[in-house]
Amino acid sequence: MSSIIRDYIDLVESLELLIDKLDGELKSFVAIIEIASRWKIINEEKWLERFGAEVKQLHEKGHHLPRKALLDITEI
Question: What superkingdom does the record give (predicted)?
């Protein structure tokens, strides 16, 4: 069991290093995904609705991700 926990910790640390190396819009987008992974929403439609709102807010702040990527992500 301890090797699984160690592997998980190593994975999280690697992801944190990767996120630190990202720039601009991609970094903001990855941050939204990380936050969304903690939501306790079971209903997929409600989750997508909230995620879509978060992405829209990011877009309104001037972070312009490709439109197709946004549509693919928020499409139900």
Answer: Eukaryota
